[in-house]
Amino acid sequence: MGWSNENKPGWERETLERLVQAQVVEQRRARRWGIFFKLLLFIYLFALLVLVRGGDMGLTAWFEDDREPEEHVAVVEVDGLIASSARANAEELNKTLKRAFEADGTRAVMLRINSGGGSPVQAAAIHDEILRLKDEHEDIPVYAVVTDIGASAAYYIAVAADEIYASQASMVGSIGVRLDSFGVVDLLENIGVERRLFTSGENKALLDPFLPLDEGHVSHIHDLMDGLHQQFVDVVRQGRGDRLAENEELFDGLIWTGQRAVDLGLIDGLGTDQSVARDVIGVEKMVTFKPRRSALQLLFEDLGMSALQSWLAMETKPNWR
């Protein structure tokens, strides 16, 4: 009569080892399938992004060579906050503008604007680059088209164009300068915290929210803002010339509808990007030029992962708007 497995020496250990090995194999198999499905998801999202982006430049943002033999309107978007750490920043937009001007087949450059403003420094850099490129390419006119809003620093950029258009309900203008601050003078005392501030300059604590407002500081800030405002006014007058209406309200920070902006001379007419390309420029084909980014950055942007996008930008500079 033979022995069963239970009667063999060490059978418990062998059984346990087999169970452990089976578990390890199962975990490896599950891990491989997990990697496979994650890779499949990434490929799907990547392909979806290519299809979405392909509508703008015909499979574009990563593989384009900027050489469009067919006559077209080169579109550059100014979208969202204008700031060094935002998508609409001078460094990237100026490079994109240069590519748009230099591309074969470019009949005109169109600024498609949808922005409430941002940094005056960034706006001035973009504005000045547009003027420089216009001087280099005298045969290429520049048109600005406002979609939802083109205000403050965005309008500063727009006046570099030869002509500006917007829809009837677009918001245009806001020619002014804004600086946000706040004061919590008694907060720390009320919660039992003693603040200790050491400075080596009489005015180093300018706009400190935990200190009472100093009239001298307020006067200095107003001088700074008045200077920036005058720069803005001068740029608008230079760009719009005698098309501006004689109305001092133009420069007091108010915002206007597109229809009213036509009456005030802030814009030249009503229209969309497509109607301006077709009826004003006379070229229906539009090619959108975008800042060159990696596929990973574009994927993060399109999925709305702003935190990861900001991390990739590696910038945290404050901005006036």
Brief characterization of the structure:
The chain is α/β, with parallel strands linked by helices and 321 residues long. 45% of the residues lie in helices and 14% in strands. It has helices spanning 11-57, 90-102, 120-136, 153-158, 187-190, 215-240, 258-264, 273-281, 295-302, 306-313, and strands spanning 72-79, 106-115, 142-151, 163-166, 171-173, 255-257, 269-270, 286-289.
Describe this structure in words.
The structure is a single chain. Helix content is 45%, strand content 14%. It has 321 residues and is of the alpha/beta class. It has one domain: 2-enoyl-CoA Hydratase, Chain A, domain 1, CATH 3.90.226. Strands 1, 2, 3, 4, 5, 6, 7 and 8 form an 8-stranded mixed beta sheet that branches. Helix 4 links the parallel strand 3 and strand 4. Helix 2 packs parallel to helix 3.
Question: Descriptors for this entry?
Answer:
disordered C terminus, eight-stranded mixed sheet, 8 strands, 10 helices, 321 residues
Give the SSE map.
Blueprint: H1 11-57, E1 72-79, H2 90-102, E2 106-115, H3 120-136, E3 142-151, H4 153-158, E4 163-166, E5 171-173, H5 187-190, H6 215-240, E6 255-257, H7 258-264, E7 269-270, H8 273-281, E8 286-289, H9 295-302, H10 306-313
Parallel strand pairs: 1-2, 1-8, 2-3, 3-4, 3-5, 4-7
Antiparallel strand pairs: 5-6
Helix pairs in contact: 2-3
Mind telling me the C-alpha Rg? 29 Å
Q: Which whole number gives the mean pLDDT?
A: 82
The number of distinct β-strands equals 8
| Largest sheet, strands/sense/barrel | 8 strands, mixed
Shape: flat
Helix count from the secondary structure assignment: 10
Which secondary-structure class do the elements indicate? alpha/beta
Could you estimate the helical fraction of the residues in percent?
40-55%
Strand/helix succession: HEHEHEHEEHHEHEHEHH
What's the N-to-C terminus distance?
94 Å
Q: Quickly give the CATH architecture.
A: Alpha-Beta Complex
CATH topology: 2-enoyl-CoA Hydratase, Chain A, domain 1
